Amino acid sequence: QVQVVESGGGLVQAGGSLRLSCAASGSIFSIDVMGWYRQVSGKQRELVASIAFSGITNYADSVKGRFTISRGNAKNTVVYLQMNSLKPEDTAVYYCYARHTVVGNYWGQGTQVTVSS
User: Fold this and answer.
1) How far apart are CA 41 and CA 55, in angstroms?
2) DSSP string of the chain?
3) What phi, psi does 48 have (nearest 5°)?
4) Residues 37-79: pLDDT tens digits?
5) Opening angle at CA 57, ends 70 and 106, nearest 5
């Protein structure tokens, strides 16, 4: 089992910044990717950013140049999402995930990010 816990959401004005944190614990030895999805009510969950154990990162086109995902430790079990130049359309619930090579994705409980115009 893997536990995933996020923190750092909140309310910010357009143009502002927030940093989300995520930590995975438990059976972490088979985690190869961690990242963030976001979901707006009534819409599909979409990938925001991910970082592999190798360090390779991936971003949604809508956040490139504004968001940065980084690791907080060498085991790739702590990740951060620095969100700059936030826009109202970034408003969503952000979910951290940890991908286990055998079981699949473990998810956090989600953290609300609200960007006011």
Assistant:
1) 31
2) -EEEEEE--EEEETT--EEEEEEEEESGGGEEEEEEEEE-TTS--EEEEEEETT--EEE-TTTTTTEEEEESSTTS-EEEEEE-S--GGG-EEEEEEEEETTTEEEE---EEEEEE-
3) -100, -55
4) 999 999 999 999 999 989 999 999 999 999 999 998 877 789 9
5) 75
